[in-house]
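batch_manifest entry 22 of 60
target: Transcriptional repressor NrdR
source organism: Helicovermis profundi
requested by: lab member K.T.
priority: normal
notes from requester: please return tokens only, no post-processing; we will run our own comparison against the previous entry in this batch. if the run fails, retry once and flag.
--- input ---
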Amino acid sequence: MNCPYCSYTESKVVDSRPTDEGHSIRRRRECSKCKRRFTTYEKIEETPLIVVKKDGTRELYDKKKLLNGIIRACEKRPVSIEQMEKLIDKVELKLHNTMDKEIHSTKIGELVIDLIKDLDEVAYVRFASVYRQFKDINSFIDELTKLLNEKNN
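--- output ---
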């Protein structure tokens, strides 16, 4: 780490503290040459996820897009934004644990479907209706029947 004051390459760590809920470390350093102190931050470098869409196009994973879809599904339902964000955190953890750099949008959708079902049944049906592109009322009824069967078992 180069000193920002004299550009000397040697410094020692004087103090380290976790920041950002443990996602990064703040380090106070002291330059070995000019003895001035400066702060650096260290965090894990995450490789970006690429989403492969149904039509084969690729785009960077966007947490905001996923959150917007979940917010629409949970509209006027007793689901807090914190619950929605926790759901997304679970989805992202599963995506990163696959170690794949490219993730198919269907995989993301299935992960959300599995988790949103436990959060709110109405939100689940709303999300499923868009994600699974119900063609008619029978598709909708089939999904509701599956949900009721799972609940009764």
